[in-house]
Design goal:
single chain; 208 residues; mainly alpha; 0% strand
């Protein structure tokens, strides 16, 4: 009597086959309508934005020591020193999250605050030209060097963010992927505007 062996291949039930087919069709449709592209470009924008925020925070971290050093040689420049301190406090008080990218008003507040801080820093560095002893101070020169490097990294980070947003927004505005954007909640993202571009993109002049 021959032993009965179980079949090596078990055909799926019609219901299971239907589910697999539906999933395959859905995956194909999502790919065709740009859903996968939205996911990858959205992540690219978030990564670029994170680097922008990190570099601005690094600049903010340098400011207290810079202000303290300048105050040691130019304490009577009180108005300029207070302006920098106030601008830094305003910039760092703004809560920045990935959701900021979906809120044009919050993004504009962040951009404006950073622009004001850039302007205040420019004025602070300008007055250092009037104080030879301050310019010769090793700590001040080191802070200037760090600030210059940070400003350059801010510029690069912003350029990368602008490029990433441009690619994403083209997808969000173009047909038929704009329909996918509406269905799955991928709104057009804000970028740095022309109005404040000059103030924000031009780093404070750092002279030695």
């Amino acid at each position: 009597m021959r032993a009965a062996f179980p079949s090596l291949f078990v055909l799926p039930s019609p219901a299971a086959l239907g589910r697999w087919l539906a999933m395959a069709i859905l995956a194909s449709l999502l790919s065709a309508c740009g859903y996968n592209d939205f996911q990858s470009k959205d992540e690219a924008v978030k990564a670029a934005w994170g680097e922008v925020v990190n570099q601005y925070q690094r600049r903010a971290d340098l400011i207290p020591n810079l202000v303290a050093t300048v105050k040691g040689y130019a304490s009577h420049e009180r108005e300029t020193l207070e302006a920098v301190t106030k601008a830094r406090a305003q910039a760092t008080s703004i809560q920045v999250t990935p959701e900021t990218l979906n809120d044009p008003e919050a993004f504009a507040r962040f951009q404006q605050a950073q622009g004001q801080l850039t302007s205040a820093l420019s004025r602070l560095l300008a007055i250092s030209e009037n104080y030879p002893q301050l310019k010769a101070d090793a700590a001040f020169r080191d802070l200037q060097s760090q600030l210059e490097g940070t400003e350059n990294r801010i510029t690069v980070a912003r350029q990368r963010y602008i490029a990433a947003v441009q690619e994403y927004n083209v997808l969000a505005r173009s047909f038929p992927t704009n329909l996918t954007a509406k269905v799955f909640g991928y709104p057009v993202k804000p970028s740095f505007t022309v109005e404040n571009e000059k103030a924000i993109s031009a780093p404070p002049a750092v002279k030695f």
